[in-house]
Design a protein that fits this description.
Layout: H1 13-20, H2 22-36, H3 44-73, H4 82-105, H5 108-135, H6 142-166, H7 171-206, H8 214-238, H9 241-268, H10 274-300, H11 311-335, H12 339-349, H13 353-367, H14 376-391, H15 393-418, H16 434-458, E1 481-489, E2 493-495, E3 498-502, E4 506-513, E5 523-524, E6 538-545, E7 550-553, E8 565-571, E9 585-588, E10 591-594, E11 632-634, E12 637-654, E13 657-664, E14 673-676, E15 680-687, E16 696-697, E17 716-722, E18 727-732, H17 738-743, E19 747-753, E20 762-771, E21 773-774, E22 787-788, H18 790-795, E23 800-803, H19 809-812, E24 815-818, E25 822-831, E26 836-840, E27 847-850, E28 853-856, E29 869-871, E30 876-882, E31 887-893, H20 896-899, E32 904-910
Parallel strand pairs: 1-4, 3-8, 12-15, 14-19, 20-25, 24-32
Antiparallel strand pairs: 1-2, 4-6, 5-7, 7-8, 9-10, 11-12, 12-13, 15-17, 16-18, 18-19, 20-23, 21-22, 25-30, 26-29, 26-31, 27-28, 27-30, 31-32
Helix pairs in contact: 2-3, 3-4, 3-5, 3-6, 3-7, 3-11, 4-5, 5-6, 6-7, 6-8, 7-8, 7-9, 7-10, 7-11, 8-9, 9-10, 10-11, 10-13, 11-12, 11-13, 11-15, 12-15, 13-14, 13-16, 14-16
């Protein structure tokens, strides 16, 4: 049988649905805004995931589980009970707002209060549903309500675990509690709700009878899935890997039973609109992602079990698709207006159904691949296309609502004229021809394929398009093929590093990346290229006919310098090597290739910089003000939680100079951390780049083997340390070659105040670093942007020396002070190799602090003074001074060659 949802009463259930669903529309708008401005949103991924899971999914569950409970038990509540239902929804949304505010403000008590409100709202909701179940007459579909009740009681468990996570845990405990938190909330609360709803909603969407054993299968699946969730939570908290995997396996068995029931129903009648297609696709992602989750726990343990690579398929593939599919069916029906109106609204909201579903799922599939497997431009184009297909639901929903409202008004007018009520809504008949769906699927596949082609066209070298057989000249091909196996190994080397190939043979290289932490490639001087190869991946490179020696190398920045060279030795018929030197090779960050001249002949992109010019219009001056200490108090200790997202993005570093930078959190020079002795710092490093990266905090004193290790694209790690000594400390990427990663932007400062540090009127932070540039490479990833040149670092002559990541920003946007104010300036020499002699022209320092000790004691009471603070690379300190006269005071690196390369700025002093 199928479930026909009863028509809403004009001033009853429909009115309640509109009011209770209002938060869903609001959170959907907030989510869209957050996606548009995500670069400026702290902990963007956390905010986005919780906007979806709490703002959209949990609100929807509270509304629709109540709706289905009443329909299935035939136990409609009186209108007076709606106030309590709305109160629960308001309590939930107040909790969501406080939770996000607690994160952004780092006030732990807000997080605790939010968890209490959210948990209380769902406990109240589950208790209310349980009361309706106990008082209702026996029903075949009571098992669905049992799913809702169990699910509602699981969310408070997940909320408690979320509070524990926010309190600050060591890395092993953090990973284990995170697995338990996700199991209780996503697999338990959301998963059980969806599983129970599909028992009746799925055949209703398909407009057919329920599969004969569906209710029995679903009844058996409930204890299996519930037991699986409980076992997973307990096993992860106890650190018992086998128990956690067993719990996930039990859950998957229960979920598979639900899928079998859905498949049996689908055999009766196939999906015919967006609702059916989207829900089916969402359930498939649910099953696949849960299986991948179990595999990760079993093979890699808890640390990488919650791999961020699963976020996209779980949130976008399962949660959002299932929600939008259900809403596509339910909204026209619950809005009502009569059969004709429901059919009209249904036609509107189901426009381009197959096209949208195909585009969404292909984009989710492609975007879920490890970053190293897809060129960055392909990922960017695919993500934009997928987001557009998802958010197409919003205008279609608005149009459908307008149709429904117009139909309801017309129906009301007709009833007023004739006195005859309009029949309630019935499930609309699918009127879309299969051929139209087939055309939509084809167009969807072609659209995604076009997006991939566009991404490849923007960066053809990334997929190995090459000019093969160069150098063969007039060599007579032998018709033979020499096939060799080459591997990229940990320690920056190819194994073997050279191969011998008879002249005239065609060479085929089977390349495998065995380096667990780095992406590599193999580029040959002939033009052949493997494209970037992720860990464990193998590719075949057809080099062409060999007529002379061919040089090869890894073109990832610095890898050739570290020893990743490869030689093809051409062997003549006499067995002797053919002696013919290839063209000179120049290596720069992100590009290496044959050139007719050395790197010295390439024009430095910074050679013509006007150091008096203002930064470009899009550039925003980095505030030099040292922000106050943040973090949250946990058991009397301040805990700082920071997420560092590695991104490879263009950065302006001087007027007219765009660098293809490597960044923490999207900006050349990472965020500044500020605390005091005894504070705990918990850093989550997320590698969203296309190669291996890492982070090394000088402020922490611990073995570097684990937290400072290089992680591959798509991976993350938690780096936790306690600040035990004061000073200003450097942090930077420690992946080889470190100098190149630092020059490309991967550095920042940690300020730990000395005990008893006096307050001052103004407190600034200036971090000096140098970079070494070469013209843009040949890839679309780089575009017209300059790149870091490792050879320039070795020669030791910077292109630019800057404060806080830009050569002229503080010339045109000076620091400010007033006469008589005490000004403290923290300074750090980030290197990678240049020292600093910090000087304020016209000023004298009465307090000097360097590397954890005072050179001039605080207060400025003694007769002595200082004119400069000298710092070797990775050293730091602060100076204090007062200005007795108004005016403009330059500050410089008094190694004046560096000042002339950009290490300067102004302090504007007013009366």
């Amino acid at each position: 049988m199928s479930l026909v949802i009863s028509a809403p009463r004009p001033h009853g259930r429909a009115s309640w649905h509109r009011r209770s669903a209002a938060p869903i529309r609001i959170w959907m708008g907030v989510l869209l805004v957050v996606i548009l401005v995500h670069r400026w949103v702290p902990d963007f991924r956390w905010v986005m995931v919780h906007l979806v899971t709490l703002g959209l999914i949990t609100n929807s569950i509270m509304v629709w589980s109540q709706h289905f409970t009443e329909s299935l038990l035939k136990n409609r509540l009186p209108d007076g009970a709606r106030r309590r239902q709305l109160a629960r929804i308001r309590m939930l949304n107040v909790g969501i707002v406080l939770l996000i505010a607690g994160l952004l403000s780092t006030w732990y008590w807000l997080t605790v209060l939010a968890a209490v409100l959210i948990g209380a709202a769902l406990t109240w909701h589950g208790t209310a549903l349980l009361g309706q179940l106990r008082t209702a007459l026996p029903s075949r579909f009571a098992v669905t309500v049992k799913y809702y009740v169990v699910a509602a009681f699981l969310l408070p468990v997940g909320a408690v675990l979320g509070v524990v996570l926010a309190a600050g845990l060591s890395a092993p405990w953090h990973a284990r509690v995170l697995v338990a938190h996700e199991a209780a909330n996503v697999l338990g609360f959301v998963g059980l709700t969806v599983a129970g709803t599909l028992l009746t909603l799925w055949p209703t969407i398909l407009r057919t009878r329920m599969f004969g054993f569906s209710s029995r299968i679903t009844a058996v699946a409930l204890p299996g899935m519930t037991g699986g969730v409980v076992t997973t939570v307990v096993g992860s908290l106890l650190g018992m890997q086998w128990m956690t995997v067993a719990g996930l396996a039990a859950y998957i068995c229960g979920l598979a039973a639900v899928v079998v029931a859905m498949a049996g129903t689908a055999f009766r009648r196939r999906p015919a609109d967006y609702a059916g297609f989207s829900v089916a696709a969402g359930v498939m992602w649910w099953l696949a992602t849960t299986a991948a989750f179990a595999w990760l726990v079993g093979v890699r343990g808890f640390e990488t079990a919650a791999l961020r690579q699963l976020t996209v398929p779980f949130v976008a593939g399962f949660l959002v698709q299932t929600l939008l599919g259900a809403m596509t069916y339910l909204l026209p029906v619950t809005m009502g207006g009569g059969p004709a109106t429901v059919r009209a609204a249904n036609q509107v909201i189901n426009r381009a159904a197959m096209f949208r579903v195909v585009v969404i799922n292909l984009c989710v599939l492609l975007f879920s691949l490890p970053p190293g497997l897809l060129p960055s431009w392909v990922r960017a184009v695919v993500s934009v296309l997928g987001a557009a297909a998802f958010f197409a639901f919003v205008p279609l929903m608005i149009c459908a609502v307008k149709v429904s409202v117009a139909g309801r008004k017309a129906a009301a007018a007709q009833q007023a004229r004739t006195g005859t009520p309009v029949p309630g809504p019935v499930p609309p008949t699918a009127a879309v021809l299969p051929s139209r769906h087939a055309r939509g699927a084809v167009v969807g596949v072609l659209t995604v394929a076009t997006a991939v082609v566009v991404g490849i066209a923007l960066n053809p070298a990334a997929v190995g398009f090459d000019l093969r057989a160069q150098g063969a000249g007039t060599v007579q091909p032998t018709g033979r093929t020499t096939t060799v196996q080459v591997s990229a190994e940990e320690g920056m080397r190819f194994e073997p590093a050279s191969v011998e190939v008879p002249v005239g043979d065609e060479l085929v290289i089977e390349l495998t990346n065995n380096d667990p932490t780095n992406v590599h490639d193999l580029v040959l001087a002939s033009g052949a290229s493997s494209g970037r190869v992720a860990h464990g991946q193998s590719v075949t490179v057809d080099v062409g006919v060999i007529g002379e020696p061919v040089e090869g190398w890894c073109s990832i920045v610095g890898h050739k310098t570290m020893g990743m060279s490869f030689d093809v030795v051409a062997v003549g018929s006499d067995g002797a090597a053919v002696d013919m030197a290839p063209a000179p090779v120049r290596e720069v960050a992100g590009h290496t290739g044959p050139h007719t001249s050395t790197a010295e002949s390439a024009a430095d992109p910074a050679a013509s910089v006007d150091f008096d010019a203002a930064p470009g219009d899009p550039f925003e001056t980095r505030s030099p003000v040292l922000e106050p200490m943040n973090g949250e108090l946990v058991n009397g200790r301040r805990v700082h939680r920071v997420e560092l997202d590695v991104e490879e993005t263009p950065q302006e570093i001087a007027p007219g100079v765009q660098l293809q930078g490597w960044t923490y959190n999207g900006r050349y020079m990472g965020p500044t951390l500020h605390g005091q002795v005894g504070d705990v710092f918990e850093i989550t490093l997320v590698n969203d780049g296309s190669m291996g990266h890492s982070v090394d905090f000088h402020a922490g004193a611990l073995a570097p083997d684990g937290p400072m290790r290089t992680i591959a694209p798509g991976e993350s790690l938690v780096y936790r340390f306690e600040a035990v000594r004061s000073g200003i400390w450097l942090y930077h990427c420690s992946t080889a070659p470190m100098s190149t990663h630092l020059a490309a932007g991967m550095f920042g400062a940690v300020v730990i105040d000395p005990p008893g540090l006096p307050a001052v009127d103004r407190e600034y932070l200036l971090v000096q670093n140098a970079t070494y540039l070469s013209p843009a490479g040949d890839t679309a990833d780089e575009g017209a942007n300059a790149v870091v040149e490792p050879g320039g670092i070795a020669r030791g002559v910077p292109s630019l020396t800057m404060f806080n990541g830009h050569a002229t920003q503080y010339v045109h946007d000076p620091l400010t002070a007033q006469t008589g104010e005490r000004v403290r300036i923290w300074v750090l020499a980030a290197g990678p190799s240049k020292a600093m002699s910090f000087h304020v022209v016209g000023g004298q320092f009465d307090t000097v602090y360097k590397e954890g000790a005072y050179l001039l004691p605080p207060g400025g009471t003694g007769p002595g003074g200082a004119q400069a603070l000298d710092l070797a690379p990775a050293q730091g300190g602060f100076v204090e001074l007062e200005f007795s006269e108004p005016g403009t005071y330059p500050f410089v690196n008094h190694s004046l060659a560096e000042a002339e390369r950009g290490a300067r700025g102004l302090i504007q002093v007013s009366p």
